[in-house]
Amino acid sequence: MSTYVYGITAKSHPAFSEDLGGVGDPPRPVRILEQGELAAVVSDAPEGLRPKRRDLLAHQTVLAEAGAAGPVLPMRFGSVAPDDDTVTGVLAERADHYKERLRALEGKVEYNVKAVHQEEAVLHRVMSENPEIRALTEANRQAGGGSYEQRLQLGEMVVAAVKAREAEDAVEVQRALEPVAAAVSVGPESTGWLVNVSFLVDRDAAEPFLTEVENVRKSHPHIELRVNGPLPPYSFVEPGPAEPAGSTAGPDAAQE
Amino acid sequence: MTVVPAQQTGGGGGSSGLYDVLELVLDRGLVIDAFVRVSLVGIEILKIDIRVVVASVDTYLRFAEACNRLDLESGPNKSPGLPDVVGQVTESGARGKSKGALSGAAETISDAFRQARDEGGEQETESRPRPRKKTAAARRREEEQE
């Protein structure tokens, strides 16, 4: 029976409720594998596990539960070891590294911030900033909407202006929130959102962070900010190249 | 959408923005070489779907149209000077109108998630349906036989 791994914690980590269900249908019972000072949160791995909604949720829920009691290094969804011994073997082999990461992330949670433009509001803003677009819109309107080429020309200008706004807003949002976070991890770009940044925040400092989020909402009414957290520190388990230099959650960043 | 359950604590995974968190659960987190990962085939498709191509003829025309419809008179007054007004507009149901190429696709997916979740939290979208009314014990026996 292969073993599904949710995350790594310290052994001193308080045990959580017996009936916590993991991935699979029916949910496989969550177990703890101890090795030295470390412990892995695992369950049996269901045959043919796929990233289904309920399994993703189960992964997330187990980690949230484990993270509520103390620091946890969340595994990426879908990590399966051949057996329990492989898991404890890995814990033993890299114990120092994991212990260091757990210390660095102690008392910290991740907030993921995604932002998109409110289309109508951003169009207003772009128009108010750009006389050329205003003039062209007015001309088109008087011409009963304008010709195909005219509409295309206007649209192209507007899209370019909106994209420029996106880039500026992305920087502004990140700059506003950086000072109230312990570390920053920029997520993959996508046209689905203009900002996708994770912030590592002291659990105790969540209030100032969320206050700043509200401030950004007020100062940037054309941006829709979606904040998810507190989450297990998915984006901060490894100091990686994705993070800007000097902003990783290394030992220096940890308040010990 | 503007009001976000930012203070949400762990455990209630079902009510958080799964779509927004999904990306973290699938793409970040610890990876250990000695472990294998399950196939993420279905999910890759989902991720590509949100990558709306902004720079296309359709988008240009749509934006030109949106500009034509905008009330220019209220434009400069409305934004960025009066956040309250914009805030009210956004919250009072203009959401349908205000989502488009920029946010539409992402929202559609997140809406789809929410909807599907509301419809039957635990139900899977994939085939191979298993009668859900079976008792837990019966299902457990079944699992053990697998």
UniProtKB/TrEMBL annotation, chain A:
Region (Disordered): 234-256
Predominant cellular place of this UniProt entry's protein: other
Keyword line: Gas vesicle
Location in the cell: Gas vesicle
InterPro entries per record: GvpL/GvpF
Family, per entry: Belongs to the gas vesicle GvpF/GvpL family.
Name used for this protein in its record: GvpL/GvpF family gas vesicle protein
Species this protein is from: Streptomyces cylindrosporus
Automatic annotation (TrEMBL), chain B:
Keywords, in A-Z order: Gas vesicle
Classification via Pfam families: Gas_vesicle
Segments of this protein annotated with the region Disordered: 71-146
Sequence ranges of Basic and acidic residues compositional bias: 114-129
Locations listed in the record: Gas vesicle shell
Summary of the function given for this chain in its UniProt record: Gas vesicles are hollow, gas filled proteinaceous nanostructures found in some microorganisms. During planktonic growth they allow positioning of the organism at a favorable depth for light or nutrient acquisition. GvpA forms the protein shell.
HAMAP family referenced in this protein's UniProt entry, alphabetically: Gas_vesicle_A
Subunit structure: The gas vesicle shell is 2 nm thick and consists of a single layer of this protein. It forms helical ribs nearly perpendicular to the long axis of the vesicle.
NCBIfam families according to UniProt: PRK09368.1 (NF006872)
Family recorded in the similarity comment: Belongs to the gas vesicle GvpA family.
Protein name: Gas vesicle protein A
Organism of this sequence: Streptomyces cylindrosporus
